[in-house]
Design a protein that fits this description.
α4 runs parallel beside α7. The strands form four sheets. The protein has a five-stranded mixed beta sheet. A three-stranded mixed beta sheet has the order 5-12-11. It contains ten helices and twelve strands. By secondary structure, it is α/β, with parallel strands linked by helices.
Length: about 325
C-alpha cells in the first residue's frame, strides 16, 4: 500500500459563490418564486463593483498556492470578464438535488458545496465579497494537524429564542436557529459571531456536521430563499468544529488584527474613512459587504471601484485577455 500524503501536502482549492441580479431573465425568475421583500433584497444579488474580479486578483496575489478555483453560480450565468478555461465554472444544478433548484438561498448552496465533483478534501469557501489583503499561507487557514482555523469576534450572536421572530431578517433568524441546534447538542452558552472571512473546510468534518443535523440541513437545502429554521452553515460549522475538537481557535487578538469587516453604504464620508482604515490595517482577510440598499450612490460606487483598482491593479490569470 502507498503511503498517505501528509495533510500539509494535500492540495487546497477555493470555491467562490457569485450571482449577477442583472443577468437577463434572472429578475423574472426571482420574482416568480419570491414571497416577500426579504426575498428581493438587492444587496444579495447585486454585482455593481465587479468584486469577484478583484477578489480573484487578491487570491492570485496573496494565496498563489491555491490549486484550483471553482466559481459557483446560477445557470447559465458567467462573469463576462472570466476566462472559463482558468476556473471550474459550476452551476447549482450540477451539485444540488434537482428538487432544490432553482435556488436563491445562499445557505442551501453552501450546505451542498462538498458535493462538487473534483473538489479537494480541504478547501476554502469564499463569498465574492471576502477578499485577501495580505499574504496568507496554508497555515493561516489550517493548523499543522490539518484542522480548520476558526476566527471569532468578541460579540455574541442571536439567542436561540429569536429563531421564530418574524421581525428579524432571515439571516438573524438562521443565526438564532443555528445556536439553538448547538445548544441542544452541546449545552446552552453565548455563541460568538464568526469573522467575515474565507471559511476553511475539511470535507470529513463538514459531512460529520451534516450527519449531526440531517433534517435541519435537508430543510435548508430545500428552501428556495432563506427561511425560518434554516441553518447558517458558515456560523454553525466553526462552532461545531470547536465543540468536536476538530478545529483550532485563533487567539482573539490575532483574529481581530488579521480580519476586517466593512459595510458598503451610501455615506461618502463613512466609506472614505472605512477604506482608509483597511489600507492602513492591511488585514489578511477583509469583507466588503453590500449594504447599499435599493439605490447605490454613484459617487460611492465609483470611490469603492477606484480603491479596488488601486489595491489590485494587475489582471489575474482568471480574466479573459
Amino acid at each position: 500500500m502507498g503511503q498517505r500524503v501528509p495533510r500539509a501536502a494535500e492540495p487546497i482549492d477555493a470555491v467562490y459563490t457569485w450571482v449577477d441580479g442583472t443577468w437577463p431573465g434572472y429578475d423574472g425568475l426571482l420574482r416568480r418564486h419570491a414571497a416577500d421583500a426579504h426575498d428581493l433584497n438587492p444587496n444579495r444579488y447585486r454585482d455593481n463593483i465587479s468584486i469577484l474580479k478583484y477578489n480573484l486578483r487578491s487570491l492570485e496575489r496573496f494565496a498563489p498556492w491555491i490549486r484550483q478555483v471553482f466559481v459557483v453560480t446560477c445557470r447559465p450565468q458567467k462573469p463576462v470578464w472570466l476566462d472559463p478555461g482558468a476556473v471550474r465554472l459550476v452551476h447549482h444544478d450540477e451539485f444540488m438535488p434537482s428538487s432544490d433548484v432553482p435556488t436563491f438561498n445562499s445557505f442551501a448552496i453552501v450546505a451542498n458545496l462538498h458535493r462538487i465533483d473534483g473538489l479537494s478534501q480541504r478547501f476554502l469557501y469564499v463569498e465574492d465579497d471576502q477578499l485577501f489583503g495580505a499574504p496568507i499561507q496554508p497555515a493561516d487557514v489550517f493548523d499543522e494537524e490539518g484542522r480548520p482555523r476558526v476566527r471569532l469576534k468578541r460579540r455574541a450572536t442571536r439567542a436561540p429564542a429569536d429563531r421564530f421572530d418574524a421581525r428579524l431578517s432571515p439571516w438573524n433568524r438562521a443565526l438564532a436557529y443555528s445556536n439553538h441546534l448547538l445548544d441542544e447538542r452541546y449545552g446552552a452558552k453565548p455563541r460568538r459571531a464568526v469573522s467575515h472571512t474565507a471559511v476553511p473546510i475539511d470535507a470529513e468534518s463538514w459531512c460529520a456536521m451534516l450527519a449531526s443535523w440531517p433534517d435541519a440541513f435537508a430543510r435548508t437545502s430545500g428552501s428556495r430563499f432563506r427561511a425560518t429554521e434554516n441553518v447558517a452553515p458558515e456560523h454553525l460549522y466553526p462552532h461545531f468544529l470547536l465543540e468536536e475538537r476538530r478545529g483550532a481557535a485563533v487567539a482573539s487578538m490575532d483574529a481581530r488584527r488579521q480580519s476586517a469587516y466593512h459595510p458598503l453604504n451610501n455615506l461618502l464620508i463613512v466609506q472614505r474613512a472605512g477604506l482608509l482604515r483597511l489600507r492602513l490595517q492591511r488585514p489578511k482577510f477583509f469583507c466588503l459587504n453590500d449594504n447599499f440598499g435599493d439605490l447605490p450612490h454613484p459617487r460611492v460606487v465609483g470611490l469603492v471601484r477606484d480603491a479596488l483598482e488601486r489595491w489590485f491593479p494587475t489582471p489575474s490569470r482568471f480574466e479573459a485577455h
